[in-house]
Amino acid sequence: MAELAAKHPLDKSLSQVNQRLKAAQLGLQIERRGDRLNLRGTLPPRPGSPKLRPYQQRVPLKLPATKAGLKQCEQTAKIIAAQLLQNIFDWRDYLGPVAGLRMAGADLSAQIDAFERHFFETRRSDSSAASIQTTWKKAYVPYLRKLHATAERHNSLSLPEAIYATVQSTKANSRSRQICCTALAALAEFLNLDLPTDLKSFWGNYGNSQTQLRNLPSDDQIVEIYDSLKNPRWRYVYGMMATYGLRNHEVFFCDAPRERLRQRADSLEPTSHAEIIVHETTKTGRHEVWPFYPEWVERFDLANGELPQINTDLDTTTLQRVGQQVTTQFRRYKIPFSPYDLRHAWAVRTILIGLPDAVAARMMGHSVQVHNRTYHRWMTHRDQQAAVQAALAKNKISAPM
């Protein structure tokens, strides 16, 4: 004789709810599988199914086997029955990570919480944990909070309407508008939410062509500022960024030149180039970078420098916060340009030297397209004149007379 299924405290209430659903002729029943509740009934074929007619299937709500979960299951059964009657039932609302979250009546906070879990679960193998955390906090959280605030202020709006209102509350033709569109489009996709108008149409004209051209520091100015800095640890940070074109936080997450030079000394290899390795935990992951100029490794004493003692434990801080401390120190020492200008100057320097764009882009941790679109535009008349003179001197071609 087959062993009877284990009794559950909810079974009596579950039976009563199923009797109500049957009396209402909704065509759906709630079933308990362990400590989870699902729906079962005759439903249209799932996407990709070879079947053409409705048949008995399970709707995997996976709601907890509690009184609250049972109540939500009953509510969802009524919603699905109405959808079937109107011929608007869509499996996408109940499959995948969203698992009926939106149509089951979950509020916006619960939907955003589920989206956050999905965000981290689907990116674990793609990037470092610190990079993922920084992206979430910087590119998603601000706009999800803005959406939540919009929905609360205007509770008569549907979710798509609240999304459009949130996007339109950002400045047109701006980076914040673009990031907002990207974040909310990802949320809508997660929720299987059909947006009548693609959010990309709200991006406007923002792009690298819209950004202000930077007046980058000259190499002489970079050296002059280095010599003026009194704090040896922050002077070392400055020198590393100037020589290797590093992002603010990358200075604190790389193998310093002294370590690479020591390795080369042990293996009797030349030490003239002193490339470094940026760690996997950074924004764009592990990559190698060579100094431009190599002479600056010695000029800035990078083989002997020490980093400032700041919190770099990514369990208690973020890459963004580490980077912000660099920006703060630049302001404190009244450096007349931003930390990123050192990175941009490094990129333009590699162009003048003749380093292939693909190589420079790889060292900087971005695509060749971004590299070309951004840095070639920042070459000033001074830079172009220097490049022309260098090319003529290198080739020594004489014009026919």
From TrEMBL:
GO MF term (any one): DNA binding
Domain of life from the UniProt record: Bacteria
GO BP terms in the entry: DNA integration; DNA recombination
Positions of the Tyr recombinase domain: 211-389
InterPro entries for the chain: DNA_brk_join_enz, Integrase-like_cat_sf, Integrase_catalytic
UniProt KW keywords: DNA recombination
Keyword Glycoprotein appears in the UniProt entry: no
Keyword Acyltransferase attributed: no
Record-given protein name: Site-specific integrase
UniProt organism field: Leptothoe spongobia TAU-MAC 1115
